[in-house]
User: What shape does this take?
Amino acid sequence: MAGRYGKKALLVTGKQSMRKSGILDELERILGEAGIDSVIFDKVEPNPSYSTVEAGADTAISKKCDMVIGCGGGSAMDAAKAIAIASLNNKEISSFFEGETPSKAMPIIEITTTAGTGSEVDRYFVLTNPETKEKNATGFKCSYPAAAIVDPMLMKTMPPRLTAATGIDAFFHGLESYVSRLSTPISELYAKEAMRLIINNLYEAFRNGKNMEAREKMALASTLAGLAIDVSRTTLLHALEHPVSGHLNAVHGEGLAALSLAYMEFTLPLCPEKFANVASLFGEDIDGLPEQEAAMKSIDGMKKFLRKFGMDIGLRELGVNEDMIDVFVEEAGKSPISKTNPRPASPADMREIYLKSL
Amino acid sequence: MAGRYGKKALLVTGKQSMRKSGILDELERILGEAGIDSVIFDKVEPNPSYSTVEAGADTAISKKCDMVIGCGGGSAMDAAKAIAIASLNNKEISSFFEGETPSKAMPIIEITTTAGTGSEVDRYFVLTNPETKEKNATGFKCSYPAAAIVDPMLMKTMPPRLTAATGIDAFFHGLESYVSRLSTPISELYAKEAMRLIINNLYEAFRNGKNMEAREKMALASTLAGLAIDVSRTTLLHALEHPVSGHLNAVHGEGLAALSLAYMEFTLPLCPEKFANVASLFGEDIDGLPEQEAAMKSIDGMKKFLRKFGMDIGLRELGVNEDMIDVFVEEAGKSPISKTNPRPASPADMREIYLKSL
Assistant: This one.
């Protein structure tokens, strides 16, 4: 399949797990059989930085690669998109987070090994500025993957904690795109099905990673959630989380979990019907309740759900303290996805959500 | 919006209803205000023929149109796609039903005024050979509409019988793509939601055409069903119906209704789980039933549903008699969509479905 897109691939991946699991060797072998040369760039760290992307682009240029294959979780896949852009546009990757639009990118193939990000089917990528620790998202027509491989077999070896953190990221892609001001009937359909599948299957994938039916359902859920955010984007919760994982190098899904209850409580008064539907998906009994009360039940459902995975955590456990909050509020406020929330949040509102989540 | 695609539009539509309802005048006015000239081609008949398309392409060429706007139901929208192709490729339109692939087409905008075909979001078009009366479907990358307008306000004036016939066509797009051998998790999601919306809203749109909520839900359902068949296509039922409307100029949705019960009975033994889900969507009680029996309940549900619209009809009411069946079987067998059925049908099987449906 890759032969359609190029002759020499830069394989973009993380530092260890793809090598250890044998996935990388297998991939090199398959590409070799198809007559495609490959160059490995395995320096992608969690929450990848601009400088990693520049180094990847330098490798792609010097080795004359003509396509990029991202293999791993969101960090590897996002870095692959950014490298595909950086290697063909004579500009620093940071400029594309400041209003510049790239004219082209190398063809991108994404191979997802977690069921979380959905990055394999959307245009977005998130990078961290290594100096300021600011974490920002952007995306362009040319950063759509040309092809995506979503194979639950590649997710089998994910450890339970990573399964939970990535699955919860996918859940919030579903929930946030469902309530987003940019939601459409079709993105809502993707989002609801993603949430339903995650509620029904994440615990089994967490408990028994070798259960391929659960892994398959989670793979589908995260793909659907990726399609949903490609249309409707995420909202305030993702905007609030990015400073947390950017500054503290925390796991993104854990940051989302820590902020989620206060975020939901803040947001639900302005779209109670949607949050009531989420409560139903959690199996909460909302029969006959007034809409606002039914919506509140989604928080009960979320709490119980997080507890199953030991993800009922606070921001302090991720290293956040009160002194950091002013910077976080400022950065979150600059994010375009703080504007898609059904309830607009002032700096004071954001501050309060952070404080409640400590 | 149309300004993005061209400067002079060929407006392809049926002989009367768009003019009578005022939609055509309104459309000319809007295009005029946007500085776009328009030429009207209002000769599209139900089950449009190759010759109509050739005449439309001649008009487009002689008037130097650079885009095509289809406005109406499936006949007008399908004719628009075919004209967009015929006017830029120096070949007869019939050749594209015989294996030729067109290299390009004029940009196509589709405005749907029924909630049935889904043609506004898929690549397919169906034409009838005026000599043999054979009705065939085809589709290409270049026949995807560049834009679609799906506005339930344009569906308000549809008479009840047309509302029912087009809604039932959309229902079978959902059902057939759901059971199709080409179905995917995403096409199944579209298909199930389309069926659910139609079961819950078609009767209200039929009973009270001015109920805009029901019209809106039907518009969404038919769009989702169109997206579903773009992935998974239809199956044997559509293959069996095309000779009926091709030879007898019958209403496509009525042909589907007449054939549907025998088609379901034939098909369901090979995918009982899916048909059991359809029975559930109809509200049939399948609790504790063995899978095959649960699947059979979908026929009960379908019968009751058709009866609500007076669509519990036989092929004889559409003018079919036994002598025609040999020709119908031969034509249906040639259709590629007879191959997507979960249960393959021999000529004898098809004959039996036709006979049972008389």
In short: The beta strands of chain A are 8-14, 37-44, 67-72, 108-112, 124-128, 135-139, 147-150.
